[in-house]
Every structure is written in C-alpha cells, then in structure tokens.
Amino acid sequence: MAKNKLLLLFVRNPELGKVKTRLAATVGPEVALEVYLHLLRHTRQVTEGLPVDKLVYYVGGVNKDDIWPNDIYEKREQISGDLGQRMQAAFAAAFLEGYTSVVIIGSDCLQLTPEIIRRAYQELETHDVVIGPALDGGYYLIGMNCLYPQLFQDKRWSTEHVFPDTLEDVKRMRLSYALLPSLSDVDHAEDLDEEMLGNLGL
Fold this sequence. Notes:
Blueprint: E1 5-12, H1 21-27, H2 29-47, E2 53-59, E3 74-77, H3 83-96, E4 101-105, H4 114-123, E5 129-133, E6 139-144, H5 162-172, E7 177-179, H6 194-199
Parallel strand pairs: 1-2, 1-4, 2-3, 5-7
Antiparallel strand pairs: 4-6, 5-6
InterPro entries: Nucleotide-diphossugar_trans, Trfase_1_rSAM/seldom-assoc
Protein name: TIGR04282 family arsenosugar biosynthesis glycosyltransferase
Pfam families: DUF2064 (PF09837)
C-alpha cells in the first residue's frame, strides 16, 4: 500500500467515568474502563502492522506515553463539536495534507481485523466511499478518496439511524460505494461476549 493512504483512529483517553458511559450505566465505571482498555489494545493489535500512515485523534488531550507507539502513530487532538464535525475536520486535514485514500475507525469493535481494513483500501481503488456497517445501525468504519462533507452533516449520532441515513446520502449524491461485513460494536452490557468477559477476569 502506498504512502498516500491514511488510517484515522478516533479514541478517548482511558479515564475512569469518561469512557463507555452507556456501558458503565449497567456494569459500573470500573468495568467499563477495563472493557475500554481491552478494546484499545485490540485496536492497536489490529492496526499497528498495516502498511499505511496512522494518526490517532484524541478527545481530551494528546497522551504521548500511552499504548500507541509514537514511532508508528502520529497523535493529534480532535476539534470541539459533534462527532460529525470532528470526523469531517479530520478528513479535511488529511486531504489537505495530500492523502488520497483515507479511512477512519473507532475503538469499539472487537470483530475488526487487519484484513477488513485492507479490504477497505482495496475497495477505495474502485469506489468513492466504503462503509463498514455496525449491527446497532451505526458504522465502525468509513473511508473515501476525497471529502464529502454531507456524509457527516445532519446525522443523529449514537442512534440506529446513522448508517441508513449516511447510505441514503451516498446514493442521493450518486457516489459509488462498497459495504464491508456488518460487525458488532461494544456499547452495552449485552455486547460483551463470554470470551471478552473471561479475558477481563469477570
């Protein structure tokens, strides 16, 4: 993969009471923090070997001494605003810096694999947009070859409407698109499987 490809990772600093708040409402903030740390480690494992540039965007300040190696991941802070405004700004900056194939992921998907991310870049060779739908109605990945601001505007974030509304915009704009496998995000207690609970000692 050429150096014109960039992977954006949107994360939060793992602070007690500030991550996985929907999950914490059921299992408590301590367990929610452990779950989030597990998700971060998984996301690093999935992404660190990919032959693309990688940029971690933080909410709440950049931590140079965390699990993301500084020689592999560039680090920046997200702008203020809703999720759509923050993603749009990250994509806009990437294209201004000369990248021509940009993909963004979060850190909520234990089913994400390096192969799926590689496939996203492959799909962008022949499509305008690639989306990885989440089973809750959102998406765990979106990628594009140039900025389409409409895909990040007027969305009901953190609802089951995000993916269908985004896909409707893609079709209305007559963009070519590819869909990746539908995967599950970890946002609620019912999203925790037995293997993950075992890994956490729960």
